[in-house]
Amino acid sequence: MQSLFTILFVFWVASCCSFRKILTATNTTTFNVIDYGAVGDGLTDDSQAFLKAWKDMCEATQSTPTLEVPLEKTFMLKPLSFNGPCNSPTIHFQLEGNVVAPKNTDAWEGQSKDKWIVFINTDGLIIDGGGQIDGQGSVWWDACKGKLDIALSLHNCSNLQLSGLHHLNSGRNHISLSDCTNTSISSISIVAPEDSPNTDGIDICRSTNILIQDSNIGTGDDCIAMNDGTSYINITGVSCGPGHGISVGSLGEDGAEETVEQVIVHDCSFSGTQNGLRIKTWQGGSGYVRNISYDQITFANTYNPIIIDQFYVDRGRQLYVDEGNQASAVEISNITYRDVNGTSASETAITLNCSMEIGCNDIIMHTINIISSTPGAYINTSCNNAHGKVTSVLPSVSCLDVSGSAEVPSSPPVEVPSVTPLEVPSISPSDENEFYF
Ligand SMILES: *[C@@H]1O[C@H](CO)[C@@H](O)[C@H](O)[C@H]1NC(C)=O
Ligand SMILES: *[C@@H]1O[C@H](CO)[C@@H](O)[C@H](O)[C@H]1NC(C)=O
Ligand SMILES: *[C@@H]1O[C@H](CO)[C@@H](O)[C@H](O)[C@H]1NC(C)=O
Ligand SMILES: *[C@@H]1O[C@H](CO)[C@@H](O)[C@H](O)[C@H]1NC(C)=O
Ligand SMILES: *[C@@H]1O[C@H](CO)[C@@H](O)[C@H](O)[C@H]1NC(C)=O
Ligand SMILES: *[C@@H]1O[C@H](CO)[C@@H](O)[C@H](O)[C@H]1NC(C)=O
Ligand SMILES: *[C@@H]1O[C@H](CO)[C@@H](O)[C@H](O)[C@H]1NC(C)=O
Ligand SMILES: *[C@@H]1O[C@H](CO)[C@@H](O)[C@H](O)[C@H]1NC(C)=O
Ligand SMILES: *[C@@H]1O[C@H](CO)[C@@H](O)[C@H](O)[C@H]1NC(C)=O
Q1: Which of 17, 69, 105, 259 is a Cys-bridge partner for 287, taking CB atoms 3.0 to 4.6 Å apart?
Q2: Residue 104's pLDDT is what?
């Protein structure tokens, strides 16, 4: 009798479990972190629940399985990595609620302190939902020097779409893209205090075919930084400030050979930034920065609206010393600026400081009108070893050596292949620039 009961009980348990298993495998396309034990009180460590939900979503075979992070809750996550590849060609991380980093650095005990949330080896990942990612950066800004964490690290991704989230107070870079292709970032905001250290908005390296559009970025450091191995980057409709502007580089540090090419920066604005459009390379490096096009740009009270610096030196570093400026340099060529307006907070609105050996070639400027942010005050331009062509530019760039070879001003903009947005099915209910890979 008792054994019969046991058999029935075992059968009941087994059927119950297999039923649940079938449900998960065949019906459920939504994996809500609450169902995996996440608490969402902002204090409990919810990392394991997120990782389990990710694992099930990643193994799901339905089209677009969704990991759901519900509204009106705040989940504390320790440093963690969401790993692909996943089974479905499209996967959806729907962040409606908030995630926050631990309030102290002990959570990173025993592991590298350079990252917080990592997505790695994903194809067709969609991250959206309108939620917030809070890096609790003040913990890091106050505590220590050295390597702090990147809030959101996207590594080896293809066909990724990140949109609509709010990113704040990262320990270091807010978003880093490395080894990614066909990726779009749109309609996001990134905010950190103006005096927070090294909190770049978006850093890109070794990536191609990237679209960044319609976003507001104000972090005190680079708004967007393009580093080694980036090409076919389209930055459209981005507002920057406060911070250090949209940067290419720095490239060529410690003699490195590094490249950036095929970049378009279109319809962007800079408000109260240290720099606007900046290209910075170290002396002694090699490689190139070429085919960069900036158009429809506005500046409000920007300290260095346009700057190319082939003698970049980071704080605390020594300028490479050479006899008579004979050092190698990262080549800078075919850089076009057109339809640029606004105000400069410094007397020198345009700085082209290029090396004697390599110089900057095919710098094309036209229809530029920058005035001082102090009404009526004088502003000027500074050039060393820059060659190119100028049409209707104020302040006048008489220092640009127009005798050098130059593109015709009407050259077409850089071609950047478009990143096609993926379909996101609606779900109910509710629904300094270093990389370490
Ligand atoms: C699972 O999906 C099947 C087929 O679409 C449907 O008939 C069934 O009602 C679903 N079961 C649940 C529990 O949603
Ligand atoms: C990059 O991610 C893809 C999955 O999207 C994977 O197949 C590939 O092996 C990964 N590459 C490396 C170098 O890990
Ligand atoms: C990038 O997108 C293009 C066009 O949508 C597609 O042909 C190509 O295969 C994609 N590349 C990768 C690595 O997914
Ligand atoms: C600039 O890009 C064009 C194609 O858009 C290419 O033909 C040309 O070689 C590139 N120039 C340089 C210097 O890379
Ligand atoms: C710059 O100013 C000119 C003249 O007012 C205007 O035609 C042009 O649209 C402005 N461009 C931008 C990007 O604001
Ligand atoms: C150009 O760079 C050199 C080397 O750093 C520096 O001494 C010089 O002041 C710079 N010139 C301008 C105009 O910024
Ligand atoms: C630009 O103006 C500033 C301030 O008047 C002056 O110090 C500097 O020498 C000028 N630079 C050039 C290249 O004329
Ligand atoms: C400069 O870039 C344009 C595309 O923006 C390209 O058509 C042209 O070939 C490039 N010029 C040189 C000298 O590479
Ligand atoms: C850059 O992206 C914007 C927004 O998708 C698009 O309108 C524009 O055509 C793209 N530019 C290039 C050169 O691909």
Answers
A1: 259
A2: 78
